[in-house]
Input
Amino acid sequence: MTPSPLFRSRPDKGPLTGLSAVVTGGSRGLGLLLAEQLLRRGCAVTVAARDEEELDRAREFLLRQRPGGRVRTAVCDVTDRAAVAALMGGAADAFGGIDVVVANAGVIQVAPVESVGSDEFRSAMDTIYLGAVHAALEALPWLRRSRPGGRLALIGSVGGLLAVPHLLPYSAAKSAVAALAEGLHAELRGDRVSVTAVHPGLMRTGSHLAAEFGGDQAAEFAWFSALAGAPLVSMDARRAADRIVTAVERRRPRIVLTPLAKAAGLTHGIAPALTTRLSALAVKVLPAPPGSGNVVALHKGHAVEGTAERELHPVLRRLRGWGSTLNDRAARRLNQRTRPAAGGH
Output
């Protein structure tokens, strides 16, 4: 498909106007809002995820927000480098090149370490870390050819700046993404390709429904969904997406979102022993693992939600009710309230 030359050459109305962008994990949650922000700023956007039906709903959402916008979708498993190569080639063919890439695909596993096995760590590394590696390596030839200079954003997490209890597979993979972003930033400076490391704290994206829960699944679901939606702790996801795309637009090397995440990252950098001790104290108030010692299959938040409402202790039920209202609302808006497949955060 040959792009319209009018689209690529129309007068510039901003740094991103007329550029071609790719967002992996873009069918729901934060990824969907990042695609929306890129579209609003004049990009032609290719949204990639594993689930075709989810992608169809994402396209409808984006075109409602931006009628007439240039949006295409692509089914892609980011753990498969050949599939990512095909994704980038298709986006370049459709829109005359690639100028912006956001690697956002991820999975979240919430469980004590006694309730996860090596498969959970491998899944997190394959999707979060290798997914970012594949996106970066396959995008680079196109980003190097971008006339204004390419922009690459890797979505990490505060969980990649310090280890978060009951999120160890996620934290380990996000830590690897943080190192990848820093290394690419240093090595690509001479190639006119900017690399932005993005480390959000908790955001109201509805991710509690797509996350996987182990151990005492109802209790794990309760604390995670409550904190991820608590107004004083978490951040509005659309505001977060706006700040992330602004950082990419301005070629900032690093952005950390939410005051709590900034404080945690700074404290860990200055006094890592202190934050490690505080994490150990946090474990004492998190749900205890089941006594059997057997690792059982983790279940998605969609499956755990109903059980949690029935089985939770009244105190935990009130905690979930207090913190998760805004997050449940975000889930309905951001394509999370349906059958999940590995996609965005």
Remarks:
- The longest strand covers residues 194-200.
- The mean pLDDT is 87.
- The CA atoms of residues 156 and 199 lie 5 Å apart.
